[in-house]
Design brief:
Elements lengths: L2 E4 L4 E4 L10 H12 L3 E3 L3 E6 L3 E4 L7 E3 L3 H10 L14 E5 L2 E6 L2 E6 L8 H8 L5 H7 L4 E11 L14 E7 L6 E4 H6 L7 E6 L2 H6 L9 H19 L10 E12 L48
Parallel strand pairs: 4-11
Antiparallel strand pairs: 1-2, 3-6, 4-5, 7-8, 8-9, 10-13, 10-14, 11-12, 12-13
Length: 315
């Protein structure tokens, strides 16, 4: 979960998770509690698929989509603040993990970082592989090497005027769309409408995600993005937005107020796993179907609602 706030206006952008859905009954109870506390709400705006040229097909309203009231990051911070079970330590770089007597012993360049009952590795493939090399779990280590990360560019753009949608066939302007048929673009979302619940006055803040292929073609270190690459990516992605909306080229530059580009690594495909502790122990991962930046179970366009959605990892 990531939210960027640019002062002084402020301009607010969700630049990681855009929304979430709920299928598990236990999680549904928790989300209901978050809703009562004012941490999350349903995103009622139009979401669907957008094809190049402005053809938009909305998703049905079910299952509900949820967003953080003030962005996704404040939700994560609120969850963290309400528990005594989590202690965030930073900066901390874990370079080695070793099993001993039923515990995991972590260290940073020989300096002990503590021992724990369980560990969760949420890192890119190379670092995860390095940590798992001494884990004593060769099957899981082997499976980790098969995971492919996609470098995805995120373009955060504020526009003085609403994006023109004269070619969009839906009577109601969409607020989020998975983009098809555009090389540089896979997702676009109107943060201003999403977070305020209405089309408020002032700049419109949009988040645009590139395709995985575009990210691979323009991959650079996340820590140091060359200005020339950032400018190239900005131009290509804005052009992709114009193609998706069916606008004339350079139209968006006239209403562009502020812009930021960043690159991050994401898992290429998402899915659901019915056996949470068996992944990697016996069978190989199988390909999954989904959008370029991940699949949201249960989200299909109205034209596809009767088609089976094969998004599970075969165990």
């Amino acid at each position: 979960m990531g939210t960027r706030i640019i002062d002084p206006q402020p301009l607010i952008f969700d630049h990681a998770a855009q929304f979430f859905t709920v299928t598990d009954p236990n999680l549904a109870e928790l989300v209901d509690l978050w809703s009562k506390k004012g941490l999350v709400r349903q995103w009622h705006g139009q979401i669907g698929e957008l094809e190049a040229g402005g053809h938009f097909v909305p998703f049905p309203p079910s299952p509900p989509r949820y967003v953080g009231v003030n962005g996704m990051r404040p939700l994560a911070e609120s969850i963290l603040s309400e528990t005594s079970m989590v202690n965030v330590v930073r900066p901390c770089w874990v370079s080695t993990l070793e099993p001993y007597n039923g515990k995991w012993y972590l260290s940073e360049k020989g300096k002990p970082c503590g021992h724990f009952d369980a560990i969760v590795i949420a890192h890119n493939g190379k670092c995860a592989n390095r940590l798992l090399a001494s884990s004593g779990l060769p099957l899981i280590a082997r499976q980790m090497k098969r995971l492919h990360l996609s470098s995805i560019w995120a373009l955060l753009a504020a526009f003085d005027d609403p994006l023109p949608m004269i070619s969009i066939e839906s009577a109601i302007p969409f607020e989020g769309a998975f983009v098809k048929g555009v090389d540089s673009l896979s997702w676009m979302a109107n943060n201003t409408a999403k977070l305020s619940g209405l089309q408020s006055k002032g700049p419109q803040c949009w988040t645009f995600f590139s395709t995985a292929a575009f990210g691979k073609q323009n991959k650079v270190p996340q820590e140091s993005v060359p200005s020339t690459t950032a400018e190239k990516v900005k131009e290509a992605m804005l052009e992709g937005v114009e193609i998706a909306l069916g606008l004339q080229r350079t139209h968006l530059k006239d209403i562009l107020q502020s812009i930021t580009v960043m690159i991050a690594d994401y898992l290429q495909s998402g899915g659901t796993c019915p056996d949470e502790f068996a992944v990697g122990l016996h069978n190989e991962f199988q390909p999954v179907k989904g959008h370029d930046i991940g699949q949201f179970p249960g989200l299909d366009s109205e034209g596809q609602i009767n088609k089976a959605c094969d998004i599970q990892l075969t165990m």
